[in-house]
Structures are given as structure tokens and as C-alpha cells.
Design a protein that fits this description.
Order of helices and strands: HHHHHHHH
Helix content: 55-70%
Shape: globular
Oligomer: single chain
Distance between the termini: 18 Å
Radius of gyration: 16 Å
Structural class: mainly alpha
Length: 152
């Protein structure tokens, strides 16, 4: 059960995150957007967000195998394009901030495929999903259960 509904208790802050989400959603390719959201959510252990973005990706027509490949992208072979792998490497690096995070090799790999504005949009999209993951985990949000997929 969810601890609190931040949308109700902290409406102004929640609305600010929604604004970042809307910007990222309109400035990042849909397929890349869902892949980076799945990957960051896997790293952060956010089942709610993994479920949401797998579902959204399927609705957008992204093949199941491609969506699943985001979880272990380094070993996905030709299921993912090099451009997608560059975004997922950037996602890993930004999500796992540390002493050597977002090094030049990771950045330059992504920069080979994207211009500065596109890179900025990707950074904002990755930052936004990390915010959502932290909100969902802290408040104990869980994926919805529906009649088509009952709990065993």
C-alpha cells in the first residue's frame, strides 16, 4: 500500500516533476525514452516504473524483446542499435553517479549520435526518471493488478 500520495500532499513539487516529464517526453524519441526509463528503473529497483514503462513501450509498438533488452543492454547484441546502447550507457552512468560517473568515454559515445540539445534532453529525461523512481520507492508504489494479469 502506498504510504502517501505526493500528488496530493505536495502538489507544487509534484507539478514541477510533471513539467520535467512533459519536456523530456516531447524532446526525446519515444523508443529511446521508454528504453532509458526502463533501464534506470531496473538499476534503481523500481518495479512500479519498470512495469509502467514496459506497458507504455508495448502500447507504443516497441517490440517486447527490445524493451526487455534494456535490462541487460550490454549483452543484447543486435537487438539494440548502437545509438540505443549509447543512451543506455549514459543512463547507467547518470543513474549510478559516483567518482567516475559520466566519464568522457560515455559522454563521447552518446555525443557521436546526438547534438547538444538532444544530449541535454536525454540528461533531463534520465534525471526525471530517477526522481520518479525515488518517489515511487519511498512511497511504496506498486504496479496495479488487473483482471487480465491476476496475482498468482
Amino acid at each position: 500500500m502506498t504510504r502517501i500520495d505526493i500528488n496530493k500532499t505536495n502538489r507544487l513539487g509534484y507539478t514541477a516533476v510533471i513539467g520535467m516529464e512533459a519536456y523530456a517526453r516531447t524532446n526525446v524519441d519515444k523508443r529511446l525514452f521508454e528504453l532509458l526509463k526502463i533501464r534506470a528503473s531496473v538499476i534503481n529497483g523500481c518495479t512500479f516504473c519498470v512495469d509502467m514503462h514496459m506497458t507504455d513501450g508495448l502500447k507504443a509498438g516497441i517490440p517486447q524483446r527490445v524493451l526487455t533488452a534494456a535490462a541487460a543492454w550490454e549483452h543484447a547484441g543486435s537487438l539494440l542499435h548502437e545509438r540505443e546502447k549509447a543512451v543506455l550507457a549514459l543512463t547507467d552512468s547518470i543513474t549510478r553517479l559516483g567518482q567516475d560517473a559520466v566519464d568522457d568515454a560515455v559522454w563521447n559515445r552518446a555525443a557521436a549520435f546526438f547534438d547538444e540539445a538532444e544530449l541535454g534532453a536525454l540528461v533531463l529525461a534520465i534525471a526525471t526518471i530517477n526522481v520518479w523512481n525515488r518517489i515511487a520507492i519511498a512511497t511504496r508504489m506498486t504496479p496495479p493488478v488487473d483482471a487480465a494479469h491476476p496475482v498468482a
